[in-house]
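Appendix B. One record, verbatim.
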Amino acid sequence: GNSYEKVLAYYYTGCTYRDMGDHPLAATWIDKAEAAMASQSMSRKDSAVLSNICGQSSQICYMAGMYEEALRKIKLSFNIKEALGTADFWDYADMGRMAFHNDSIALASRFYRLSAADLMRRGLDTRYMDFAGELLGFFVNTGDSSMSKKLAHAITESDDDIKHANVLSALADYYAKTEH
């Protein structure tokens, strides 16, 4: 195959090993994909493929407890997606999660706020309810009463059944801390 297909083959192999739980081998293949991309004449700046590669690499580093490297990789992925105009609430959340695990609460809050705003614009439904609980838990635990209130309201006003344990736990924490 051509160089683009080689990059994709490395990328998909890395994702397969990630899904199998073999993070060291997954990282090896994702690194090969990134190196192959860097050695080609493909544009790194505007490449959605590179963004995906860096995003997967970030997740693998995160799962392996390598939080600084995870944050570095997700920043590169995010910057590409932002330049392409394709960043969405998942991307904001990934940035927030990696920042949080690097003890950068202000940066985490900034991106989690963007994620929550985008999520609430879309409307909460079953697909996103578990994630909404993660966000609410973050806002409650960091004392962000404004975002906690908005998100708790969006969750309780949703037409979907709230069955996710983390959502119920986050709502309980919110109500306990706000004395409702």
